[in-house]
Amino acid sequence: MTDETDLDLSGLKCPLPVLRTARALRGLPAGARLRVTCTDPMAAIDIPNLVRETGDHLDATERAGPHLRFTIRRGAAGGAG
C-alpha cells in the first residue's frame, strides 16, 4: 500500500505530539505511512516508544535544526493501538 499522510505537530509540547500521532495511526490501514514532523525534543523518545508499543514500524528518523521527522509504517495487523 502506498498511502502516505503528513502530520505537522510543530510547536506542540509533550504529551500532545505522541497523543496525536497515536490517534493518526489508529485511523490508518495496514501498510500506510505516516510522516510526523515535531519540534518537541521529547518526541525523540516518546514516538519511538509509541511505535514499539503499537507494533508499527519506525522506518526513518531525521533531524533538521529544531525539527524531528519520523516516518512510520502501520503494522500489518493494524497495531495494538
Automatic annotation (TrEMBL):
InterPro entries: TusA-like, TusA-like_sf. Coiled coil: none annotated. Keywords: Transferase. Residues 7-31 form the UPF0033 domain. Its EC number is 2.8.1.-. One of its GO terms (molecular function) is transferase activity. Pfam families: TusA. The keyword Transferase applies. The keyword Transport does not apply. It comes from the Bacteria. Belongs to the sulfur carrier protein TusA family. This is Sulfurtransferase TusA. It comes from Methylobacterium symbioticum. The lineage of its organism: Bacteria, Pseudomonadati, Pseudomonadota, Alphaproteobacteria, Hyphomicrobiales.
